[in-house]
Amino acid sequence: MQIVAATQNLHKLREISQITSQFGMELVPMKELLGDLDIEENGETCRENSLTKSRTVCRLTGKAAIADDSGIAVDFLGGAPGVHSARYAGGHGDDVANRRKILAEMVGVPMKDRTAQFICVISYVHPDGTEIVAEGIVPGLISLEERGTGGFGYDSIFIPDGYDNTFAEMPQEVKNTIGHRALALKKLHEEFEALYGKQEEEQK
Fold it and tell me: Which residues of the chain are under the pLDDT cut of 70?
């Protein structure tokens, strides 16, 4: 099945494609159909932003669309940056500045108090009005410094529970199994299969 990926973020597109290919989904980058369209993300939650993107791309292309909105919530910072993760330091998508801001705000905070969670909301919207939303959450800790060169976003300062390495220090295939995006996509696939599998049975 072909689905339009409602993102201009090449890192997200690559990661989502690697995971969804396991489910038999073929992703078409929105850039191929809509050019450099910039969809305003002004929702108060990741769910709102995700649905805004998938609904917009579905409406403009007439094709099924999938969208991701994700963020990191740090307990010491009262849940920030949360939905504002991509622009925490001011400029949208400045990963380096965003990471440095969090680390600067947490100087002197002991590891036991550096708890955080990565959150990802994936939405699927079909032209027939079908909508599926799935969430993936990974708890962990904010590291004392940046570690690792893989991944993107906040990966180099996030250590998932049960591991000693940051996401950026892990092989991509490992992150694609335990990461917040992987968990959300797995749930989406399960709901996708349940919905369309049921429809196929009813049509027999």
Answer: 198-204
